């Protein structure tokens, strides 16, 4: 399994699945979630609504999958990151769960290439350095990691891009 780090808008990335940093409603929002729904089109929202009708809200740390509408990817895996609250609400474990549950769904859907945004590090204010370490460690510890051809960390802001590059260099 190859790990790639790029600085880009995740809606332009050509992989089997991109991951969305969603919220429990699954109905869209700002940040990367807004960009994915805007560019992917209504089909993504329709599928999210069908999932909501079936199971209700998506709990923090869990993930669901839809098709990707007009995006170059085949699927969008929507996961709900924790809102950072001084670290007292199991935020680290919940962020780890986001990566694990997204990877599990990917394996179940024959996704061989997957791109992750820096979940929770925008509107949800998770400290970026800790989030980067969790992202790397969780992927490296995933039992089925060699199932994947490629896992891409898509950084948007300069700070995250530098942190991910440094983390990889210093390993
Ligand atoms: N491509 C890749 N990364 C992006 C993009 C993009 N187009 N746009 C932003 N980022 P955020 P969260 C980065 O706020 O913190 C939404 O309203 C951004 O720089 O999108 O998990 C949801 O509906 C940051 O590093 O997600 C939720 O309510 C990272 O994506 C809430 O925000 C995550 O930032 C989720 O907050």
By CATH reckoning, the class would read Alpha Beta
Number of domains: 1
**What average pLDDT do the residues reach?**
97
| Rg estimate, integer Å | 15 Å
Say how many strands there are: 6
Bound chemical compounds: ligand AR6
Name given to the CATH architecture = 3-Layer(aba) Sandwich
The helix/strand series, from N terminus to C terminus, equals: EEHHEEHEHEH
- What's the helical proportion of residues? 25-40%
Characterize the main sheet: 6 strands, mixed
Q: What are the segments in which pLDDT stays under 50 over at least 5 consecutive residues?
A: none
CATH topology: Leucine Aminopeptidase, subunit E, domain 1
The separation of the N and C termini measures 16 Å
Q: CATH superfamily assignment?
A: Leucine Aminopeptidase, subunit E, domain 1
How do the strands line up in the largest sheet? Answer: 1-6-5-2-4-3
The best one-word shape is: globular
Structural category = alpha/beta
